[in-house]
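User: Batch of two.

Assistant: Item 1 of 2:
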Amino acid sequence: MPEEKDYLPVYRESASYARENDELSPYRLSRRENIACKEAIETSIRKHFDGMHLDPFADKEVLEAFGRSRTMFVLAVTVNEKDYDGRFSRSNKEWAMSFNIPQDRDSAFGDNRLPYVVNSHPAILDGFIDETRRELARKPSVLGKLAENTAAVKKTPPNHSAKSKHEVR
């Protein structure tokens, strides 16, 4: 997944916050993108599940299309909304609870997050989440790579003892 791709930012506030702060446009754009991400996850699971096994590459298309932040946000919202379901692993439930996801309830429409809660079978979705988390752990972010490079440069002392080809002895 290319980190430099410019993904639409995830709007993490509620609809009421967006309304009060004149931010309905970014809220709606992000919500539409969340719904599209949810649909892509469901499509990917259908496409990559053979009835017994989920292809470990099922998450790649979704991550490529929607990026790390949105994919993880939609998955975390899903697990938090279905925290009662014992088919999600404890580690995935703990991971999902670590996200700061505000309540987004509206008197007219109920929970505004429900349209982007993934409806795939929970046991298969749990495997999808496991693989997605593993994939993202393998691929550090650009900031992570920069931090690693900076740390490596700081650890490497300048080599004053090496002589150049042109140095006279």
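Item 2 of 2:
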Amino acid sequence: MKEKRVVSYNPSLARKQKAQIQKQIDKAIAISSFKQASKEEYGDSIKYVNFTSIDKEGEVVKSIPSLNQEKIDEDLSFAGYNLLVTSEINKSAQDICNTYHGLWRIEESFRVMKTYLEARPVYLQNKESIYGHFTICYMALTILRLIELKVFNDELPIGQIIEFIRNYNITETLEGSFINNATKSNTLSIIQKRYGLSKLDNIQLRRKDVENILSSELFFD
């Protein structure tokens, strides 16, 4: 099968990865300074360590750790580089990179389904009930994605939108006034500014204020 390879380099990623490599090297050096350090103590930094056994009259006495400079140099030389391999040979390099960077939304969708929409675990046994449960979850996810991308133009993460929807509530008092129970947040500020809802974060609200909030474009886009 023919394949297309796209190699990219990111200076910021290179600096981050080199710092991580140096951190693992420092850890390996620090552990190596202790006598009889076990290999388990090295963790991920063990890839930068060689263990040389010293023979005394044909008998293995102990294993002395030393830095694996060849591996260190190799990892440093590839820091910041990213290789994408695909069978979509007719797509441009930019399209391939854009598709790859969009994969995080798929992973996020699974997290949203499990964390916010409680898709799993499923406390149902009837097949139709299970299908119905997941259908509702998928429909809710679709609506949330539309709100995220079409209403807020991808300005607010889906998690923040869900938290705002859950936490923004207003209580009517016996006197006919209203108390805003929502707490101030970056999400609330963005929505307030975007839709011109100056009283969205007011603690005390009149009925007219509540009606203005509910009739805004926020609820009817």
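The radius of gyration is 28 Å.
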